[in-house]
Amino acid sequence: MPIRSFTGAFALLLAMILQPAAASNLDLLLSGIFPDQQATYIGYESIEREDIPMTSHIERKYLVVDFRFKSDPASDQLQASVHKVCMALLKDRELIRSLSDSGYDMVAVAFDRQSQYDCL
């Protein structure tokens, strides 16, 4: 279920950029999700969709949180890992509120350079 356009992710990243505490919280939260080193947190990136007009009601930006596995995971392990990251983000209400206030309404998770999975 790869998804290429994530408006909320943009909103999330912008919030982090605008509010350094949120960015710091995001890094801390995401770097501790896989303590067994199953996957390594790489960082996050804000992406702006230029195909959406600036006058549109749809957000033009989204956030991609990036991880890498040490080896290719099985399909069920990948799905479980996406769920684990998304749930960790959703449970941090302060972080979500901060990102939302900054205009993000979508977040994507990536474990490679080819696919992104929609969280919120």
Task: Please provide a written account of the structure.
The chain is an alpha+beta fold and 120 residues long. The chain has a single domain, classed as GMP Synthetase, Chain A, domain 3 (2-Layer Sandwich). It is built from 4 helices and 4 strands. The protein has a 4-stranded mixed beta sheet with strand order 1-2-3-4. A hairpin with a 6-residue loop joins strand 3 (107-110) and strand 4 (117-118). The longest helix is centred in the C-terminal third of the chain and has 17 residues, at 75-91. The protein is globular, with a radius of gyration of 14 Å.
Indicate the topology:
Blueprint: H1 7-18, H2 20-31, E1 39-48, E2 61-69, H3 75-91, H4 93-101, E3 107-110, E4 117-118
Parallel strand pairs: 2-3
Antiparallel strand pairs: 1-2, 3-4
Helix pairs in contact: 1-2, 1-4
- Known CATH architecture: 2-Layer Sandwich
Radius of gyration: 14 Å
Unreliable stretches: 1-18
CATH topology grouping: GMP Synthetase, Chain A, domain 3
Helix content: 40-55%
Count of distinct structural domains: 1
The strand line-up of the biggest sheet is 1-2-3-4
Mean residue pLDDT = 78
The CATH class name reads: Alpha Beta
Question: Overall 3D geometry?
Answer: globular
Can you summarize the main beta sheet? 4 strands, mixed
Number of strands: 4
Proportion in β-strands: 15-25%
Q: What is the terminal-to-terminal distance?
A: 14 Å
